Every structure is written in structure tokens, then in C-alpha cells.
Amino acid sequence: MARRIQGQLDEPLNDTGRQQARAAAARFAPDMVDAILCSDLGRAAQTAAPLGEATGVTVQPQAVWRERHFGRFQGWRYAEIAEQAPAVFARIEARDPDLDLDGGESLLQVRARIDAALQALVARYRGQRVVVVSHGGVLDAVYRLVTGKPVSEPRDFPIHNACICRLHWVDGQWHIDRWADIDHLLDSQDEIDPRSRPAALLGRVG
């Protein structure tokens, strides 16, 4: 209950986050990457920077890969929401697909945004290997889009800080090769909600 929601607040990585970004970048050889996209939030750009340096590929920030906007509750702790807005907290816990958090995005809106972003990847990068550095809420949407899991169902799949998820596109659909790989990471966490921390999505398009 001590977790704090970052959402689209543009806060920088801490020392642990920068270390994890370097560790993730070390997993990619220069010939493994044709393009690097990232959320235009600062913490995602900081995560992507070591990968760009390691591969020599220019990082392209794109707003479409941002974390979910949590409306007026950005920066709040879950315990604060539970205490001060218990009805909203109950809907968050129930994964209400239409809850927009007073000016933010609903789960259905995030799903639609990421669905369009994935379709754009296929249209633009067919035959290439693309790394997208984004956020936990985005990975949640990606997993559900690929597997068909409804946004209203509880999450029963892992999402970790600076994890690497590998997918490929073939025969008109995405397939997961490996999900939430953290072999490159030290065993360290902090109090920031892991759903808001940057992570990498490696997609092989066709």
C-alpha cells in the first residue's frame, strides 16, 4: 500500500533505475536492433539512452508509448486513495475498464492507444527488429492485446522494472517469445510502483 503512482509525471530515474538501464542495454548487440522507440517521458528516455549508445541507433521519443495517465491521482500513494477516495480505490482494485481517474485514461483507452501503436509498428517497420522502451502499464496492455486477456481481469503475469519482453509478428499477429526477462538485473527494488517504471519491448516485425 506504500506504492506511489507516477503515471505521466515526468520524474527522473534514481540510481537503481540508471543501473538497471545500463544492465538492460548490455543485453543487446549492435546488430540486434534496427530502431529504438521510447516513451517521451524523461525516465523512459533515460532508460533508452544507454541502449542507443551501445547500439549506435538513434532513440526516437514518441508520446504514444507513455504510461497510463492517472488523472488527479498521479503522485498519490494507493493508501492515500484508499483513505481519501475509497470508491475510486475499489474501482481501481476491481480493474473497472471505464474508470478514467478524474481526467486520466481508462484501461480501455490505454488498450486502444497501444493497439494503434502496435499496428503502426507493423506498418512502419516490417522486416526489422525494433526496441520500444516504455512503461509497465503499456506492457500490461501489450500482453492483453496479444493474448486476448480482458483488461478487467486481474493481472496474472509478471511485469518488472527494466524487464525485457520479446515478441514477433508473423501471419498477421503478434506472438510472445519471452516475457518479463530480468536475467540481467540485480535484485533491487524501490518504493516506486513497478507498473510505472520503464521496461523494454523487443519486437521482430515480420
Defining key terms:
single chain, 206 residues, alpha/beta, Rossmann fold, 6 strands, 34% helix
Layout of helices and strands:
Blueprint: H1 15-25, E1 35-39, H2 42-55, E2 59-62, H3 78-84, H4 86-93, H5 107-124, E3 129-135, H6 136-147, E4 164-170, E5 173-181, E6 198-205
Parallel strand pairs: 1-2, 1-3, 4-6
Antiparallel strand pairs: 3-6, 4-5
Structure description:
The protein has a single domain, classed as 3-Layer(aba) Sandwich (Rossmann fold). α3 (78-84) packs across α4 and α5 crosses α6 (136-147). It is α/β, with parallel strands linked by helices. The chain has helices at residues 15-25, 42-55, 78-84, 86-93, 107-124, 136-147; strands spanning 35-39, 59-62, 129-135, 164-170, 173-181, 198-205.
CATH topology tier name: Rossmann fold
State the CATH class.
Alpha Beta
Strand order within the widest sheet?
Answer: 2-1-3-6-4-5
Number of domains: 1
Q: H/E order of the elements?
A: HEHEHHHEHEEE
Largest sheet: 6 strands, mixed
The overall pLDDT, averaged over residues, is 90
User: What does the overall shape look like?
Assistant: globular
Terminal residue distance: 42 Å
- What Rg do the Cα atoms give? 16 Å
Strand % is 15-25%
* Total helical elements: 6
